[in-house]
Amino acid sequence: MDGIYSQCYIHFVFAVKFKNAAISADWQESLHKYITGITHNNGHKLMAINSMPDHVHMLVGYNVTQAVAEFMRLVKGDSSEFINKNKFTPVKFHWQSGYGAFSISLSGIDRQVKYFINQDQYHQNIQFRAEYMDMLKEWEVDFDEKNIFEELV
After folding, report:
1. Rounded Cα distance, 41 and 136, in Å
2. CA 153 to CA 91: how far, in whole Å?
3. Which of 13, 111, 129, 152 has its CA 20 to 30 A from that of 145?
4. ∠ CA(60), CA(62), CA(63), 5° rounding?
5. How far apart (Å, rounded) are the C-alpha atoms in residues 35 and 133?
6. What's the burial of 60, exposed, middle or buried (CB within 10 Å: 0-12/13-18/19+)?
7. E strand segments, the chain
8. Which tens digit of pLDDT belongs to each residue from 15-56?
9. CB neighbours of 69 closer than 8 A, spacing ≥ 6?
10. Strands 100-104 and 55-61
């Protein structure tokens, strides 16, 4: 689209629904590459991605011509189809409903990338649900605790 100029960076986070469908180190890189393709095919730039067994973090240079909800529908839907088609998990894979989308300033990109890289260390001390609630508080997002991602079941 002509005449649209923007600089928008979004930190997305979304979670796995079932413990038996956790993201394994064996196929984590394939998932990241697949999500990178979805992101690029929708006109965005994936700047960083990392995942733990129960969730994914993505930092995206966002093309504002696409609605965030549509982008996340495609990322989650297409990636779960990819996981199921390849039978990466012993049970049908699903993402939990919902996601987090947090705006990042240009000056905050390096900090976010370091945060993504250090997820293994970070999660030695904190569970995903607590991490997510901390993010909501840091970005001053109003939330209802009963609607926060559930722990893996």
Report:
1. 29
2. 13
3. 111
4. 150
5. 24
6. buried
7. 9-15, 45-52, 55-61, 100-104
8. 999 877 899 999 999 999 999 999 999 999 999 999 999 999
9. none
10. unpaired
